[in-house]
Amino acid sequence: MNQNIDKLKTWQNIESQYYMQVVNRLPVVLVMGKGTLVWDSNSNKYLDFTSGWAVLNLGHSHPVVTNAIQEQSKKIMQMTNLYYTIPQLGLAKLLADNSCYDRVFFANSGAEANEGACKLARKWGREMLDGAYEIITANNSFHGRTMAMMAATGQKHYQEEWEPLMPGFINVEYNDFDKFLEKVSEKTCAVLLEVVQGEGGINVPDQKYLLSVQKWCQEHNVLFMVDEVQTGMGRLGTLFGYQKFGLDPDVMVLGKALGAGVPLGAFLCKERFSVLSPGDHGSTFGGNALTTAAGWASAKYIIETDLPAEAARSGKYLYSMLEVIKDRHDIEAVRGFGLLLGLELRKNKAQAVIERCLSKGLLLNAVRPNIIRFFPPLNVTEGEMNQAIKILEEALIEEKI
Ligand SMILES: *Cc1c(COP(=O)(O)O)cnc(C)c1O
Questions:
Q1: Which atom in ligand 1 lies closest to the alpha carbon of residue 53?
Q2: Which pTM does this prediction carry?
Q3: Where are the domains of the chain?
Q4: Is the CB of 109 within 6 Å of ligand 1?
Q5: Which ligand 1 atom sits closest to the C-alpha of 146?
Q6: Ligand 1 centre and the CA of 55: distance in Å?
Q7: Where does residue 164 rank: exposed (0-12), middle (13-18), buried (19+ CB within 10 A)?
Q8: 142 close to ligand 1 (CB < 6 Angstrom)
Q9: What would the pLDDT profile of 110-145 be if each residue is shown by its tens digit?
Q10: Which of 256, 261, 302, 313 is the most buried (most CB within 10 A)?
């Protein structure tokens, strides 16, 4: 045991000596994952209800994904996008065939894909809307941490230290169509919204709000863009979140679960909005053969096995279990749907609760000081959900909640 603590200390010392200190890490070194489970360097087992950050919708190291990576790595992993590769072609067609979109651009991350979508929006504004360049985004949104996406992300604490921000992004109240109307103008070229805000606290908007924004955009020839980096690939119980709300957005941005564990993002648009031309955009790694092989295999599996329907069923079950917990403890609300759920506490004790859960073998995340997020793999089992709820309840009791 002492030896194990020494070993952990050694790893922690390396981190504290060599890393830029941008995150407060929990005292666990993870060495293996399988399905919903991960193991640390001391062979302790944990239920991963974070899915490697909404990435592992098939769970850790699913054979469909590892086989695709293995096979592709022996053939060809990387070329410049001056040439065609088969996995990229396959994934592009699969995404188009299963969405309302016609064209795709592959990037390496959510932030980067959002950047590309915003470039498309600016070009649209320049060519079609008399040079309009402003992009409306929401308060409490999250779109990534690049220079432009900090301006898009409507949260002061991501912005304050980095001013002056990139101009042209207007943050407005989420789920409030009147406030939205106050900020739009002839300068607006696009709107970029999450269909459910993930990092912002699992905020579910009214369908009517999203439909009103969409309608306004259609009437004004302004791009309606959805950031589905967190909600895409089945998490909300439909392949894409916009489908759940009956939307028909012009542009969609994907990331996280698209690569199933390797870095892959994408933005897609309808034919009519496909204004980028050769030289306008590019990426060295974006959509290389290795990442798109993983993404293609994973997306095919999600679609063929109707994993979104399973996420919807499991999401209902987990939600009902959280409701039971809510009734038994001092808890404000259960939030979200599908397998993107939140538990809103009345006190700012989310971090204390997740640290207790960690020591009992359950990985969770506090999106807000008072909100705990649950986003397990979409194929999480009922037994795993029961086990997680049991651990959660023990932690709540210990925190006197
Ligand atoms: C995580 C996230 C991003 C950023 O993705 P990165 O891959 O970390 O750049 C963007 N938008 C949403 C909705 C996200 O959840």
A1: 1
A2: 0.98
A3: 2-62+307-398, 75-304
A4: yes
A5: 9
A6: 10
A7: exposed
A8: yes
A9: 999 999 999 999 999 999 999 999 999 999 999 999
A10: 256
